[in-house]
User: Fold this.
Amino acid sequence: MTDATRAGNFKLGDLDVTRMGYGAMQLAGPHVFGPPKDRAAAIAVLRAAVESGITHIDTSDFYGPHVTNELIREALHPYADALTIVTKVGATRGSDASWNVASTAAELESAVHDNLRNLGLDVLDVVNFRVMFNVVAPTEGDIEAPLTALAELQAKGLIRHIGVSHVTANQVAQARAITQIVCVQNMYNLAHRNDDALIDSLARDGIAYVPFFPLGRFSPLQADALSHAAEQCNATPMQVALAWLLQRSPNVLLIPGTSSVEHLKQNVESVKLDLPDDVLASLDKIGSAKTED
Ligand SMILES: NC(=O)c1ccc[n+]([C@@H]2O[C@H](COP(=O)([O-])OP(=O)(O)OC[C@H]3O[C@@H](n4cnc5c(N)ncnc54)[C@H](OP(=O)(O)O)[C@@H]3O)[C@@H](O)[C@H]2O)c1
Assistant:
């Protein structure tokens, strides 16, 4: 398999991670709920990710719930020193697969202990606080209380580093006034570029930006433009979408999600792509291409 380390590394606090990482959300059952169809296949994907050189795995105990963390533990524990597992708290799942806000100090402490137990760890490497004010888009609102609660859990030695997810620039600033923030995880890709200014300001401050949904929600028009660029580069549209993110800024870390070893291999291969200027210019226009309803 292609060596994932070719895309270089970035520091999450004192933790050195490969810019090409892996997002484990797709390993749970349909709608990120319940067990996977094929447990052995899910374990194989995790082991293949690590064998490719990836040292950054993104997860949460609310995927499943518990399922992806249990799979990570079964596949990879005891963990290599170099592996960084980034998790997130701020939500719980209902028995109907619903996503519910869980951001009181007691709920966050319980979520941290769930992650520790199910991952088989004494300390969590990085915990993102996932803001749940609005499921569709980051929405302004006060996050002082949950960030303070997480900072207290960090002071107790249960968390090494803290990040935030699904946040506005104001919320990033508020979080940074409370504790050191090492990463921001928001939706961003070729077609959804609301965070362009935020990415650049985080880069200046040495903070990682980790896009979720790196592979999509493209309109047909955007997908056509991406396919055209892919033909020019002799690559797949998804590889081009990932390579574009790697070239977007050195603080962008990738966590593409897949439940397939074959797709994982294809995604890791994007570290070899060097997109020429004319392709980058045509891809830059995708974000402003008219979205079809
Ligand atoms: N903070 C948050 O709120 C938040 C929200 C969503 C996700 N996340 C994190 O971000 C990670 C990435 O997001 P995501 O997994 O939802 O979205 P994604 O990486 O944009 O795309 C995943 C989808 O693309 C497919 N796929 C992946 N590689 C492919 C390939 N080479 N060819 C064809 N299809 C491919 C997957 O299906 P297959 O399984 O069939 O490959 C899956 O349906 C997640 O795993 C999770 O860790 C965070």
